[in-house]
Write a structure and sequence with these properties.
It contains one helix and four strands. With 83 residues, the chain is an alpha+beta fold.
Length: 83
């Protein structure tokens, strides 16, 4: 990997993710739902797509994507894109 490519990769991994992906299960006999985070997405540098890292695949095949809230940094959660 060239130094320029490594620098570009390092900058991308420091970027805040744009979307968080969840699988949502309805609770039996309740109006509640269980949300489990299973994916993170970063916008491409040119803005025309996303890199998505999935830690699991929803059993029902549905993935809910939500934008990352501005105050998400307060959670202490770390994001690191895979190489």
């Amino acid at each position: 990997m060239t130094e320029e490519a490594h620098k570009s990769q390092t900058q991308r991994t420091k970027l805040k993710p744009y979307l968080l992906g969840y699988t949502v299960r309805e609770a039996k006999n309740s109006d509640q739902a269980y949300w489990s985070k299973v994916a993170i997405a970063w916008v491409h540098k040119d803005g025309n797509g996303y890199n998505i890292q999935m830690d699991a695949v929803p059993v029902d095949g549905k993935l809910v994507l939500r934008t990352v809230p501005e105050d998400h940094d307060d959670t202490g959660e770390l994001f690191k894109e895979l190489p």
